[in-house]
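Question (not urgent): is this output format expected?
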Amino acid sequence: MSKYTTGELAKLCGVTVRTVQYYDTRGILIPSELSEGGRRLYSDDDLKRMKIICFLRELDLPIDAISQILKEEHPEKVISLLIEQQETVLTDEISEKQEKLEKLRDLKNGLKGKTDFSLETIGDIAVIMEGKKKLKRMRWMIILTGIPVTALQWFSIILWIVKGIWWPFIVWVLVAVPWGILVSRYYFHHVRYICPECHEIFKPTLKEAFWANHTPTARKLTCTGCGHKGFCVEVWGGDEQ
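Got this back:
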């Protein structure tokens, strides 16, 4: 079985000799034995215990709390819960940092080729990035709900052509029209548009938005702020009242 001096133990655990000595005086890391010269000697079990103490200190647990945990009949159960908790915290932090990294990359890509960008341009890109995922989710939800409606449409048309049965087409119309109205209202309630001239975020009327010429990410509208008429970039606005 290996034996470690105070200095060796401190080096293996990444702490100072004074820290090891302090834990000894607090009674949470007592050396397994003393050499003939009175030097502290620590075993492999002491090394494991020291690593556990260091881990618990990294969780900002006070010495008194660590001492109480190690005196429990089954301290490993408490430590196991703390490890799981720390794993969850770190996973959340990684996800948060990954999301920030994606935003930075989106901003970087958005600024490529813009030699005359301004603070307003950066602000517009930031708004677009912020709601991009929410817009994507909403669009996918609309697509998925529209699949049964589309399937009913083709079924009714084929049945009418092949069999001469027309009433399923009427059923489709009765379903498709209310669905289209509800989806349109829902969609335009949750989106806003950025004017490329004054950079104002505005909400057009349902009628104007519905009939406007558009691309997947922009729509030709009249800005309610400056009156500019042209393609305005679509952004998420569902969190606004």
